[in-house]
C-alpha cells in the first residue's frame, strides 16, 4: 500500500506464496490449475491497469512498477510449476501403463540350453516337472539307475484295497488315481508304489524314492 499525495490511496492485491487451491494429484487437475493461474494473472493485471487509470497513471512510479513485476513473476512461477507437475505425472502414468502391459503378458517357460553339460546339472535340487523337461533335452542322467537295473524292478497289477486311504490310492508322481489293472511298481527298499511308466522315468534321473528319499537298490 502506498499513499499518493494527500488523499489518494491505492491498494495492490498480491498473491500469497501458497497454492491458490488444493492441487489434485491426477493429471487433468494439474492442467486445469495451470489454466486457472493464467486466468488469475490476466485478472490481476487488469485490476492493476484499472487502478492505474483511476488514479492518474501512477505506473511511472518505481514502487508501483516493482509491485507489478513481482505480481507477474509470482503468477508465472506458479503456472510453470503446475505445468511441470502435469508433465511429470504424464510421464509417470505412461511408465505405469507400460509396466501393467508387461505384467499382463503370458509368461513363457524358460528354455533349457541344449549345450549344458551334465556336470552342471543337480537333479537332487530339481522338481519332478523340471526333471522331466531336462530328460527330454539331455537324456538320462548318470545319477539315476541304469536301464538294466530299472527293468529288474518287479511289475504288478493294481488291485484296489478297501483299507487304504485315498492318498495311498494314487501315484504321487502323476497325481492320478490308480485304476484296476494298472501296471505298478513297488520299490524294493521302501515298498512305496507308483505307476510303472512314472517311476521308470523318475529312476532314470534319480535313484531315490520320491516320497521318502530312500535310495533304490536293485539286486
Automatic annotation (TrEMBL):
<dbReference type="InterPro" id="IPR033276">
    <property type="entry name" value="BB"/>
</dbReference>
<dbReference type="Pfam" id="PF13639">
    <property type="entry name" value="zf-RING_2"/>
</dbReference>
<keyword id="KW-0479">Metal-binding</keyword>
<protein>
    <recommendedName>
        <fullName>RING-type domain-containing protein</fullName>
    </recommendedName>
</protein>
<dbReference type="InterPro" id="IPR001841">
    <property type="entry name" value="Znf_RING"/>
</dbReference>
<dbReference type="GO" id="GO:0016567">
    <property type="term" value="P:protein ubiquitination"/>
</dbReference>
<dbReference type="GO" id="GO:0008270">
    <property type="term" value="F:zinc ion binding"/>
</dbReference>
<feature type="domain" description="RING-type">
    <location>
        <begin position="171"/>
        <end position="213"/>
    </location>
</feature>
<keyword id="KW-0863">Zinc-finger</keyword>
<dbReference type="InterPro" id="IPR013083">
    <property type="entry name" value="Znf_RING/FYVE/PHD"/>
</dbReference>
<dbReference type="GO" id="GO:0004842">
    <property type="term" value="F:ubiquitin-protein transferase activity"/>
</dbReference>
<dbReference type="GO" id="GO:0046621">
    <property type="term" value="P:negative regulation of organ growth"/>
</dbReference>
<keyword id="KW-0862">Zinc</keyword>
